[in-house]
Amino acid sequence: MRKLGRKLLGLSIPLFSGLCAFFIVLIVLIVMGETIIGGWSTLSWEFLSTGPKEGMTEGGIYPAIIGTFLLVVIMSIAGVPIGTITAIYLSEYASQKSILARMIRFAVNTLAGVPAIVFGLFGLGFFIQFVGTGMDKVLSGGAELKWGQPNILWASLTMALLTLPVVIVSVEEAIKAVPRELREASLALGATKWETIRKVVLPNSITGILTGGILAVSRGAGEVAPILFTGAAYFLPHLPSALSDQFMELGYHIYIMTTQSPDVEATRGIQYATTLVLLVLTFALNFSAMFLRYKIRTRTAR
Amino acid sequence: MNQNGYKITTRNLSLSYGPKLALKDISVGIRTNYVTALIGPSGCGKSTFLRALNRMNDLIDGVQTSGEVLVDDIDVYRNDVDVVALRKKVGMIFQRSNPFPKSIYDNIAYGPRINGIHEKNKLDQIVERSLKQAALWDEVKDDLKKSGLALSGGQQQRLCIARALAVDPEVILMDEPASALDPLATAKIEELIFELKEKYTIVIVTHNMQQAARVSDYTAFFYIGKLIEFDETKNIFTSPKEKQTEDYVTGRFG
After folding, report:
1. Which candidate in A1, A71, B79, B151 could, as Cys together with B155 as Cys, close a disulfide (CB 3.0–4.6 Å)?
2. Is the Cβ pair B98, A195 closer than 8 Å?
3. CA-CA distance, B147 to A217, in Å (whole number)?
4. CATH code at A255?
Protein backbone atom coordinates (compact mmCIF):
# COMPACT_ATOMS: atom_id res chain seq x y z
CA MET A 1 0.00 0.00 0.00
CA ARG A 2 2.81 2.34 0.97
CA LYS A 3 4.70 1.36 -2.09
CA LEU A 4 1.77 2.20 -4.31
CA GLY A 5 1.36 5.56 -2.58
CA ARG A 6 4.97 6.45 -3.24
CA LYS A 7 4.66 5.39 -6.82
CA LEU A 8 1.56 7.52 -7.31
CA LEU A 9 3.28 10.46 -5.68
CA GLY A 10 6.27 9.98 -7.95
CA LEU A 11 4.00 10.11 -10.96
CA SER A 12 1.83 12.95 -9.82
CA ILE A 13 4.59 15.43 -8.97
CA PRO A 14 5.95 15.73 -12.52
CA LEU A 15 2.38 15.84 -13.81
CA PHE A 16 1.37 18.58 -11.38
CA SER A 17 4.50 20.68 -11.85
CA GLY A 18 4.22 20.24 -15.61
CA LEU A 19 0.65 21.50 -15.49
CA CYS A 20 1.72 24.55 -13.51
CA ALA A 21 4.40 25.30 -16.06
CA PHE A 22 1.95 24.80 -18.89
CA PHE A 23 -0.45 27.21 -17.19
CA ILE A 24 2.09 30.01 -17.68
CA VAL A 25 2.35 29.24 -21.37
CA LEU A 26 -1.43 29.15 -21.55
CA ILE A 27 -1.72 32.63 -20.06
CA VAL A 28 0.71 34.05 -22.61
CA LEU A 29 -1.25 32.35 -25.39
CA ILE A 30 -4.57 33.67 -24.08
CA VAL A 31 -3.22 37.22 -23.76
CA MET A 32 -1.71 37.10 -27.24
CA GLY A 33 -4.73 35.35 -28.78
CA GLU A 34 -7.27 37.66 -27.20
CA THR A 35 -5.30 40.74 -28.26
CA ILE A 36 -4.80 39.53 -31.81
CA ILE A 37 -8.42 38.47 -32.27
CA GLY A 38 -9.76 41.71 -30.80
CA GLY A 39 -7.35 44.04 -32.51
CA TRP A 40 -6.60 42.46 -35.86
CA SER A 41 -9.60 43.91 -37.72
CA THR A 42 -8.83 47.44 -36.53
CA LEU A 43 -5.15 47.21 -37.32
CA SER A 44 -4.28 48.81 -40.64
CA TRP A 45 -1.71 51.08 -42.15
CA GLU A 46 -4.14 53.94 -41.62
CA PHE A 47 -4.45 53.02 -37.93
CA LEU A 48 -0.68 53.24 -37.54
CA SER A 49 -0.23 56.41 -39.55
CA THR A 50 -3.05 58.75 -38.53
CA GLY A 51 -4.20 60.43 -35.34
CA PRO A 52 -7.42 59.87 -33.38
CA LYS A 53 -10.61 61.31 -34.86
CA GLU A 54 -14.24 61.90 -33.86
CA GLY A 55 -13.56 62.46 -30.15
CA MET A 56 -11.08 59.56 -30.10
CA THR A 57 -13.67 56.98 -31.17
CA GLU A 58 -12.10 56.54 -34.58
CA GLY A 59 -8.80 57.04 -36.35
CA GLY A 60 -5.37 55.78 -35.40
CA ILE A 61 -2.59 56.00 -32.85
CA TYR A 62 0.18 57.64 -34.85
CA PRO A 63 0.87 60.41 -32.27
CA ALA A 64 1.04 57.83 -29.48
CA ILE A 65 3.57 55.71 -31.41
CA ILE A 66 5.72 58.76 -32.09
CA GLY A 67 5.34 59.92 -28.48
CA THR A 68 6.42 56.54 -27.16
CA PHE A 69 9.36 56.53 -29.55
CA LEU A 70 10.50 59.99 -28.48
CA LEU A 71 10.03 59.09 -24.82
CA VAL A 72 12.31 56.06 -25.00
CA VAL A 73 14.89 57.85 -27.14
CA ILE A 74 15.26 60.78 -24.72
CA MET A 75 15.14 58.35 -21.81
CA SER A 76 18.01 56.31 -23.34
CA ILE A 77 20.10 59.38 -24.09
CA ALA A 78 19.82 60.34 -20.42
CA GLY A 79 19.84 56.92 -18.75
CA VAL A 80 22.26 54.73 -20.69
CA PRO A 81 25.37 56.93 -20.23
CA ILE A 82 24.69 57.44 -16.51
CA GLY A 83 24.00 53.74 -16.04
CA THR A 84 27.12 52.79 -17.98
CA ILE A 85 29.34 55.17 -16.02
CA THR A 86 27.91 53.86 -12.75
CA ALA A 87 28.56 50.28 -13.86
CA ILE A 88 32.14 51.20 -14.79
CA TYR A 89 32.66 52.73 -11.38
CA LEU A 90 31.18 49.75 -9.57
CA SER A 91 33.05 47.06 -11.48
CA GLU A 92 36.37 48.78 -12.23
CA TYR A 93 37.12 51.43 -9.66
CA ALA A 94 35.22 50.77 -6.44
CA SER A 95 36.81 48.25 -4.14
CA GLN A 96 34.23 45.49 -3.82
CA LYS A 97 34.26 45.71 -0.03
CA SER A 98 34.17 49.50 0.28
CA ILE A 99 31.24 51.09 2.05
CA LEU A 100 30.58 53.43 -0.86
CA ALA A 101 30.30 50.56 -3.36
CA ARG A 102 27.95 48.72 -1.01
CA MET A 103 25.85 51.83 -0.59
CA ILE A 104 25.57 52.28 -4.36
CA ARG A 105 24.63 48.65 -4.83
CA PHE A 106 22.03 48.93 -2.09
CA ALA A 107 20.65 52.08 -3.71
CA VAL A 108 20.47 50.40 -7.13
CA ASN A 109 18.63 47.40 -5.68
CA THR A 110 16.25 49.66 -3.79
CA LEU A 111 15.64 51.76 -6.89
CA ALA A 112 14.74 48.58 -8.78
CA GLY A 113 12.10 47.77 -6.17
CA VAL A 114 10.43 51.17 -5.93
CA PRO A 115 6.87 51.07 -7.39
CA ALA A 116 6.51 52.91 -10.69
CA ILE A 117 3.84 55.27 -9.35
CA VAL A 118 6.31 56.51 -6.74
CA PHE A 119 8.68 57.42 -9.56
CA GLY A 120 5.82 59.33 -11.15
CA LEU A 121 5.20 61.29 -7.97
CA PHE A 122 8.91 61.89 -7.54
CA GLY A 123 9.10 63.22 -11.09
CA LEU A 124 6.20 65.55 -10.41
CA GLY A 125 7.72 66.82 -7.18
CA PHE A 126 11.36 66.98 -8.21
CA PHE A 127 11.53 67.63 -11.94
CA ILE A 128 8.38 69.70 -12.44
CA GLN A 129 7.84 71.55 -9.20
CA PHE A 130 11.44 71.93 -8.13
CA VAL A 131 13.66 71.93 -11.23
CA GLY A 132 11.07 73.15 -13.75
CA THR A 133 9.58 75.89 -11.60
CA GLY A 134 13.09 76.93 -10.62
CA MET A 135 14.06 77.16 -14.28
CA ASP A 136 11.01 79.31 -15.03
CA LYS A 137 11.93 81.67 -12.18
CA VAL A 138 15.48 82.01 -13.48
CA LEU A 139 14.55 82.29 -17.16
CA SER A 140 11.51 84.55 -17.01
CA GLY A 141 11.18 85.56 -13.36
CA GLY A 142 8.22 83.20 -13.02
CA ALA A 143 6.15 85.19 -15.52
CA GLU A 144 5.97 82.42 -18.09
CA LEU A 145 4.99 78.87 -17.24
CA LYS A 146 7.17 76.82 -19.55
CA TRP A 147 9.21 74.18 -17.71
CA GLY A 148 7.19 74.03 -14.51
CA GLN A 149 4.55 71.81 -16.07
CA PRO A 150 4.43 68.26 -17.40
CA ASN A 151 6.39 67.72 -20.61
CA ILE A 152 8.26 65.04 -22.55
CA LEU A 153 11.63 65.94 -21.00
CA TRP A 154 10.51 65.45 -17.42
CA ALA A 155 8.62 62.29 -18.33
CA SER A 156 11.69 60.88 -20.08
CA LEU A 157 13.99 61.72 -17.17
CA THR A 158 11.57 60.13 -14.71
CA MET A 159 11.48 57.03 -16.90
CA ALA A 160 15.28 57.08 -17.10
CA LEU A 161 15.46 56.87 -13.30
CA LEU A 162 13.07 53.94 -13.29
CA THR A 163 15.10 52.04 -15.87
CA LEU A 164 18.54 52.93 -14.47
CA PRO A 165 18.94 49.69 -12.44
CA VAL A 166 18.26 47.62 -15.56
CA VAL A 167 21.04 49.42 -17.43
CA ILE A 168 23.51 49.25 -14.54
CA VAL A 169 23.01 45.53 -13.97
CA SER A 170 23.38 44.49 -17.60
CA VAL A 171 26.37 46.73 -18.30
CA GLU A 172 28.12 45.49 -15.17
CA GLU A 173 27.46 41.91 -16.25
CA ALA A 174 29.00 42.62 -19.65
CA ILE A 175 32.05 44.36 -18.17
CA LYS A 176 32.66 41.40 -15.88
CA ALA A 177 32.51 39.07 -18.88
CA VAL A 178 35.52 40.78 -20.50
CA PRO A 179 38.39 38.30 -19.99
CA ARG A 180 41.05 39.33 -17.50
CA GLU A 181 43.71 38.37 -20.04
CA LEU A 182 42.67 41.23 -22.29
CA ARG A 183 42.92 43.81 -19.52
CA GLU A 184 46.32 42.45 -18.52
CA ALA A 185 47.53 42.56 -22.12
CA SER A 186 46.60 46.21 -22.33
CA LEU A 187 48.10 47.16 -18.96
CA ALA A 188 51.29 45.26 -19.73
CA LEU A 189 51.70 47.41 -22.85
CA GLY A 190 51.84 50.49 -20.68
CA ALA A 191 48.19 51.54 -20.97
CA THR A 192 46.64 53.32 -18.01
CA LYS A 193 43.57 51.93 -16.35
CA TRP A 194 41.31 54.43 -18.07
CA GLU A 195 42.87 53.71 -21.49
CA THR A 196 42.29 50.03 -20.85
CA ILE A 197 38.65 50.63 -19.95
CA ARG A 198 38.06 52.91 -22.92
CA LYS A 199 39.88 50.88 -25.56
CA VAL A 200 39.50 47.30 -24.39
CA VAL A 201 36.78 46.90 -21.76
CA LEU A 202 34.06 49.12 -23.22
CA PRO A 203 34.41 48.01 -26.88
CA ASN A 204 34.14 44.44 -25.65
CA SER A 205 31.05 45.21 -23.57
CA ILE A 206 29.22 47.08 -26.29
CA THR A 207 26.68 44.32 -26.78
CA GLY A 208 25.98 44.39 -23.03
CA ILE A 209 25.48 48.12 -23.09
CA LEU A 210 23.09 47.69 -26.03
CA THR A 211 21.25 44.92 -24.19
CA GLY A 212 20.87 47.18 -21.18
CA GLY A 213 19.56 49.95 -23.37
CA ILE A 214 17.08 47.68 -25.10
CA LEU A 215 15.80 46.15 -21.86
CA ALA A 216 15.41 49.65 -20.44
CA VAL A 217 13.50 50.74 -23.54
CA SER A 218 11.25 47.70 -23.39
CA ARG A 219 10.56 48.34 -19.71
CA GLY A 220 10.07 52.05 -20.28
CA ALA A 221 7.73 51.58 -23.24
CA GLY A 222 5.46 49.44 -21.09
CA GLU A 223 5.21 51.66 -18.02
CA VAL A 224 2.43 54.19 -17.62
CA ALA A 225 2.62 55.28 -13.99
CA PRO A 226 5.84 57.33 -14.21
CA ILE A 227 4.51 59.50 -17.03
CA LEU A 228 1.00 59.90 -15.65
CA PHE A 229 1.79 63.18 -13.89
CA THR A 230 4.98 64.13 -15.69
CA GLY A 231 4.12 64.58 -19.35
CA ALA A 232 1.61 62.25 -21.02
CA ALA A 233 -1.40 63.92 -22.58
CA TYR A 234 -4.96 62.70 -23.11
CA PHE A 235 -5.16 64.01 -26.64
CA LEU A 236 -3.00 66.35 -28.69
CA PRO A 237 -3.81 67.60 -32.17
CA HIS A 238 -0.10 67.92 -33.03
CA LEU A 239 3.12 66.03 -32.38
CA PRO A 240 5.55 67.31 -29.73
CA SER A 241 8.07 69.66 -31.32
CA ALA A 242 10.07 70.77 -28.28
CA LEU A 243 11.27 69.23 -25.02
CA SER A 244 8.72 71.38 -23.20
CA ASP A 245 5.78 69.86 -25.11
CA GLN A 246 3.47 67.19 -23.82
CA PHE A 247 3.04 63.97 -25.75
CA MET A 248 0.76 60.98 -26.30
CA GLU A 249 1.96 57.53 -25.36
CA LEU A 250 0.75 54.00 -26.16
CA GLY A 251 0.34 52.67 -22.63
CA TYR A 252 -1.31 55.84 -21.45
CA HIS A 253 -3.52 55.79 -24.52
CA ILE A 254 -4.79 52.33 -23.60
CA TYR A 255 -5.43 53.52 -20.05
CA ILE A 256 -7.49 56.54 -21.06
CA MET A 257 -9.36 54.66 -23.77
CA THR A 258 -10.50 52.06 -21.26
CA THR A 259 -11.29 54.41 -18.38
CA GLN A 260 -11.85 57.94 -19.65
CA SER A 261 -13.43 57.47 -23.05
CA PRO A 262 -17.01 58.79 -23.43
CA ASP A 263 -17.93 55.60 -25.28
CA VAL A 264 -15.85 52.65 -24.16
CA GLU A 265 -17.78 50.19 -26.33
CA ALA A 266 -17.14 52.13 -29.52
CA THR A 267 -13.40 52.22 -28.93
CA ARG A 268 -12.98 48.53 -28.09
CA GLY A 269 -11.26 47.75 -31.39
CA ILE A 270 -8.87 50.65 -30.94
CA GLN A 271 -8.03 49.47 -27.42
CA TYR A 272 -7.23 45.96 -28.60
CA ALA A 273 -5.20 47.15 -31.57
CA THR A 274 -3.22 49.62 -29.45
CA THR A 275 -2.47 46.85 -26.96
CA LEU A 276 -1.36 44.62 -29.80
CA VAL A 277 1.03 47.29 -31.11
CA LEU A 278 2.48 47.83 -27.63
CA LEU A 279 2.88 44.07 -27.04
CA VAL A 280 4.57 43.48 -30.39
CA LEU A 281 6.89 46.39 -29.69
CA THR A 282 8.00 45.18 -26.25
CA PHE A 283 8.26 41.55 -27.36
CA ALA A 284 10.42 42.54 -30.30
CA LEU A 285 12.67 44.55 -27.99
CA ASN A 286 12.95 41.68 -25.49
CA PHE A 287 13.78 39.22 -28.23
CA SER A 288 16.54 41.43 -29.59
CA ALA A 289 17.98 41.75 -26.08
CA MET A 290 17.89 37.96 -25.71
CA PHE A 291 19.61 37.58 -29.06
CA LEU A 292 22.37 39.99 -28.04
CA ARG A 293 22.88 38.16 -24.75
CA TYR A 294 23.16 34.89 -26.63
CA LYS A 295 25.83 36.47 -28.82
CA ILE A 296 27.78 37.69 -25.79
CA ARG A 297 27.71 34.24 -24.25
CA THR A 298 28.88 32.43 -27.35
CA ARG A 299 31.68 34.95 -27.79
CA THR A 300 33.00 34.84 -24.23
CA ALA A 301 32.98 31.05 -24.36
CA ARG A 302 35.27 31.04 -27.39
CA MET B 1 71.84 50.69 -18.76
CA ASN B 2 73.41 49.52 -15.58
CA GLN B 3 77.22 49.44 -15.45
CA ASN B 4 77.59 46.11 -13.71
CA GLY B 5 75.65 44.25 -16.39
CA TYR B 6 72.51 43.64 -14.37
CA LYS B 7 69.23 44.89 -15.84
CA ILE B 8 67.09 43.84 -12.91
CA THR B 9 68.16 43.17 -9.35
CA THR B 10 65.86 42.12 -6.54
CA ARG B 11 66.83 42.55 -2.91
CA ASN B 12 65.01 40.62 -0.22
CA LEU B 13 61.84 40.60 -2.29
CA SER B 14 58.96 39.09 -0.31
CA LEU B 15 55.35 38.98 -1.35
CA SER B 16 52.17 37.77 0.29
CA TYR B 17 48.58 37.30 -0.79
CA GLY B 18 46.78 38.28 2.39
CA PRO B 19 48.16 36.00 5.09
CA LYS B 20 49.76 33.62 2.60
CA LEU B 21 53.44 34.21 1.93
CA ALA B 22 54.21 33.55 -1.75
CA LEU B 23 57.80 34.77 -2.06
CA LYS B 24 60.40 34.79 0.68
CA ASP B 25 63.46 37.01 0.55
CA ILE B 26 64.36 36.65 -3.09
CA SER B 27 67.65 38.33 -4.03
CA VAL B 28 68.74 37.79 -7.58
CA GLY B 29 70.44 39.64 -10.42
CA ILE B 30 69.17 39.37 -13.99
CA ARG B 31 71.83 40.12 -16.59
CA THR B 32 71.32 42.48 -19.49
CA ASN B 33 70.80 40.77 -22.86
CA TYR B 34 70.72 37.28 -21.47
CA VAL B 35 67.86 34.84 -21.09
CA THR B 36 67.06 33.93 -17.51
CA ALA B 37 64.76 30.98 -16.93
CA LEU B 38 62.64 30.53 -13.80
CA ILE B 39 61.86 26.90 -13.07
CA GLY B 40 60.21 25.01 -10.26
CA PRO B 41 57.10 22.97 -9.47
CA SER B 42 53.59 24.50 -9.69
CA GLY B 43 52.87 27.00 -6.96
CA CYS B 44 56.55 27.64 -6.23
CA GLY B 45 56.20 31.36 -6.86
CA LYS B 46 58.00 31.67 -10.19
CA SER B 47 55.07 33.34 -11.97
CA THR B 48 54.45 35.57 -8.96
CA PHE B 49 58.10 36.59 -9.05
CA LEU B 50 57.86 37.34 -12.76
CA ARG B 51 54.76 39.47 -12.27
CA ALA B 52 56.45 41.34 -9.43
CA LEU B 53 59.06 42.63 -11.88
CA ASN B 54 56.61 44.84 -13.81
CA ARG B 55 54.17 45.24 -10.92
CA MET B 56 51.38 43.22 -12.55
CA ASN B 57 50.62 41.86 -9.09
CA ASP B 58 49.28 45.31 -8.22
CA LEU B 59 46.10 44.31 -10.03
CA ILE B 60 45.35 41.59 -7.51
CA ASP B 61 43.58 42.67 -4.33
CA GLY B 62 45.44 42.15 -1.06
CA VAL B 63 48.98 41.71 -2.39
CA GLN B 64 51.70 42.97 -0.06
CA THR B 65 55.23 43.42 -1.36
CA SER B 66 58.40 44.20 0.59
CA GLY B 67 62.03 44.46 -0.43
CA GLU B 68 63.32 46.03 -3.61
CA VAL B 69 63.07 45.40 -7.32
CA LEU B 70 65.68 47.51 -9.08
CA VAL B 71 65.24 48.02 -12.80
CA ASP B 72 68.21 50.04 -14.09
CA ASP B 73 69.08 50.75 -10.45
CA ILE B 74 65.70 52.30 -9.63
CA ASP B 75 63.38 50.59 -7.16
CA VAL B 76 60.11 50.13 -9.01
CA TYR B 77 58.14 49.84 -5.77
CA ARG B 78 59.01 53.37 -4.76
CA ASN B 79 55.96 55.60 -4.53
CA ASP B 80 57.06 58.04 -7.19
CA VAL B 81 57.63 55.40 -9.86
CA ASP B 82 55.41 55.65 -12.93
CA VAL B 83 53.94 52.16 -13.26
CA VAL B 84 52.78 52.87 -16.80
CA ALA B 85 56.31 53.78 -17.91
CA LEU B 86 57.67 50.73 -16.09
CA ARG B 87 55.32 48.38 -17.93
CA LYS B 88 56.26 49.96 -21.22
CA LYS B 89 59.91 49.27 -20.49
CA VAL B 90 59.28 45.80 -19.04
CA GLY B 91 56.87 44.08 -21.40
CA MET B 92 55.07 40.82 -20.79
CA ILE B 93 53.96 37.75 -22.74
CA PHE B 94 51.30 35.63 -21.09
CA GLN B 95 50.70 31.91 -20.84
CA ARG B 96 47.50 32.03 -22.87
CA SER B 97 47.91 34.11 -25.99
CA ASN B 98 45.61 37.08 -25.56
CA PRO B 99 45.28 39.08 -28.76
CA PHE B 100 42.63 41.78 -28.68
CA PRO B 101 39.55 41.02 -30.76
CA LYS B 102 40.88 43.47 -33.35
CA SER B 103 42.78 43.19 -36.61
CA ILE B 104 46.42 42.07 -36.63
CA TYR B 105 47.42 45.62 -37.51
CA ASP B 106 45.39 47.19 -34.70
CA ASN B 107 46.70 44.68 -32.19
CA ILE B 108 50.24 45.81 -32.82
CA ALA B 109 49.38 49.49 -33.24
CA TYR B 110 47.57 49.47 -29.88
CA GLY B 111 50.68 50.16 -27.79
CA PRO B 112 52.19 52.84 -30.06
CA ARG B 113 48.79 54.54 -30.33
CA ILE B 114 48.30 54.87 -26.58
CA ASN B 115 51.80 56.31 -26.50
CA GLY B 116 50.68 59.03 -28.87
CA ILE B 117 51.84 57.77 -32.27
CA HIS B 118 49.11 58.26 -34.84
CA GLU B 119 50.87 58.98 -38.15
CA LYS B 120 49.92 56.28 -40.61
CA ASN B 121 53.35 55.64 -42.12
CA LYS B 122 55.06 55.62 -38.73
CA LEU B 123 52.57 53.04 -37.49
CA ASP B 124 52.99 51.04 -40.69
CA GLN B 125 56.73 50.94 -40.06
CA ILE B 126 56.33 49.84 -36.45
CA VAL B 127 53.84 47.12 -37.41
CA GLU B 128 56.12 45.77 -40.12
CA ARG B 129 59.24 45.92 -37.94
CA SER B 130 57.52 44.25 -34.96
CA LEU B 131 56.01 41.48 -37.06
CA LYS B 132 59.37 40.82 -38.68
CA GLN B 133 61.07 40.70 -35.30
CA ALA B 134 58.45 38.22 -34.12
CA ALA B 135 58.94 36.11 -37.28
CA LEU B 136 55.32 36.51 -38.26
CA TRP B 137 55.57 39.03 -41.11
CA ASP B 138 55.83 36.55 -43.97
CA GLU B 139 52.78 34.66 -42.77
CA VAL B 140 50.46 37.62 -42.32
CA LYS B 141 51.76 40.51 -44.44
CA ASP B 142 48.96 40.13 -46.98
CA ASP B 143 46.09 40.23 -44.52
CA LEU B 144 46.93 42.61 -41.73
CA LYS B 145 43.22 43.49 -41.63
CA LYS B 146 42.34 39.97 -40.54
CA SER B 147 41.28 39.47 -36.91
CA GLY B 148 44.09 38.45 -34.57
CA LEU B 149 41.79 35.74 -33.25
CA ALA B 150 41.68 34.08 -36.67
CA LEU B 151 45.35 33.06 -36.40
CA SER B 152 46.55 29.69 -35.12
CA GLY B 153 47.68 29.34 -31.49
CA GLY B 154 51.36 29.66 -32.30
CA GLN B 155 50.76 32.62 -34.58
CA GLN B 156 48.64 34.29 -31.90
CA GLN B 157 51.47 33.97 -29.42
CA ARG B 158 53.94 35.46 -31.90
CA LEU B 159 51.41 38.23 -32.54
CA CYS B 160 51.44 38.94 -28.80
CA ILE B 161 55.23 39.05 -28.88
CA ALA B 162 55.13 41.46 -31.81
CA ARG B 163 52.59 43.55 -29.92
CA ALA B 164 54.90 43.72 -26.91
CA LEU B 165 57.89 44.63 -29.12
CA ALA B 166 55.98 47.48 -30.74
CA VAL B 167 56.32 49.66 -27.63
CA ASP B 168 60.13 49.26 -27.60
CA PRO B 169 60.56 47.46 -24.29
CA GLU B 170 63.99 46.73 -22.83
CA VAL B 171 62.96 43.64 -20.90
CA ILE B 172 60.51 40.95 -21.98
CA LEU B 173 58.91 38.79 -19.32
CA MET B 174 57.43 35.54 -20.60
CA ASP B 175 55.05 33.53 -18.48
CA GLU B 176 55.13 29.99 -19.90
CA PRO B 177 54.73 31.36 -23.42
CA ALA B 178 54.75 27.98 -25.12
CA SER B 179 52.86 25.82 -22.65
CA ALA B 180 49.69 25.81 -24.76
CA LEU B 181 51.45 25.21 -28.09
CA ASP B 182 52.36 22.16 -30.11
CA PRO B 183 56.06 21.19 -30.49
CA LEU B 184 56.45 22.89 -33.87
CA ALA B 185 55.02 26.19 -32.67
CA THR B 186 57.09 25.86 -29.49
CA ALA B 187 60.25 25.46 -31.54
CA LYS B 188 59.44 28.66 -33.40
CA ILE B 189 58.98 30.58 -30.16
CA GLU B 190 62.27 29.23 -28.80
CA GLU B 191 64.08 30.21 -31.98
CA LEU B 192 62.58 33.64 -31.58
CA ILE B 193 63.76 33.94 -27.98
CA PHE B 194 67.24 33.16 -29.19
CA GLU B 195 67.12 36.00 -31.70
CA LEU B 196 65.47 38.46 -29.34
CA LYS B 197 68.14 38.25 -26.67
CA GLU B 198 70.48 40.18 -28.97
CA LYS B 199 68.44 43.26 -28.20
CA TYR B 200 66.38 42.47 -25.12
CA THR B 201 66.77 41.09 -21.64
CA ILE B 202 64.45 38.11 -21.33
CA VAL B 203 63.03 36.39 -18.27
CA ILE B 204 61.04 33.26 -18.98
CA VAL B 205 58.98 31.09 -16.67
CA THR B 206 58.73 27.54 -17.87
CA HIS B 207 57.48 24.18 -16.72
CA ASN B 208 59.48 22.47 -19.35
CA MET B 209 63.03 21.79 -18.18
CA GLN B 210 64.33 20.92 -21.62
CA GLN B 211 63.07 24.28 -22.74
CA ALA B 212 64.91 26.04 -19.92
CA ALA B 213 68.06 24.13 -20.80
CA ARG B 214 67.70 24.99 -24.49
CA VAL B 215 66.88 28.67 -24.40
CA SER B 216 68.34 30.14 -21.22
CA ASP B 217 71.76 31.32 -20.13
CA TYR B 218 70.89 31.52 -16.45
CA THR B 219 68.40 29.52 -14.47
CA ALA B 220 66.74 30.17 -11.13
CA PHE B 221 65.15 27.26 -9.30
CA PHE B 222 62.23 28.17 -7.03
CA TYR B 223 60.65 25.95 -4.43
CA ILE B 224 57.71 26.94 -2.17
CA GLY B 225 58.36 30.64 -2.48
CA LYS B 226 62.10 30.45 -1.99
CA LEU B 227 64.95 30.82 -4.43
CA ILE B 228 66.87 27.58 -3.93
CA GLU B 229 69.58 28.04 -6.50
CA PHE B 230 70.58 30.51 -9.17
CA ASP B 231 73.43 29.87 -11.56
CA GLU B 232 74.39 29.50 -15.17
CA THR B 233 71.99 27.14 -16.84
CA LYS B 234 74.61 24.53 -17.65
CA ASN B 235 75.63 24.35 -14.00
CA ILE B 236 72.04 24.00 -12.82
CA PHE B 237 71.45 21.11 -15.18
CA THR B 238 74.80 19.34 -14.92
CA SER B 239 76.20 20.07 -11.49
CA PRO B 240 73.63 21.67 -9.18
CA LYS B 241 74.88 22.56 -5.73
CA GLU B 242 71.63 21.92 -3.92
CA LYS B 243 70.05 18.53 -3.44
CA GLN B 244 66.55 19.90 -4.12
CA THR B 245 67.65 21.36 -7.45
CA GLU B 246 69.19 18.09 -8.47
CA ASP B 247 66.06 16.16 -7.51
CA TYR B 248 63.92 18.52 -9.53
CA VAL B 249 66.01 18.72 -12.69
CA THR B 250 66.52 14.98 -12.77
CA GLY B 251 62.77 14.53 -12.51
CA ARG B 252 62.65 12.97 -9.06
CA PHE B 253 59.86 15.32 -8.07
CA GLY B 254 57.90 18.24 -9.48
Report:
1. B151
2. no
3. 33
4. 1.10.3720.10
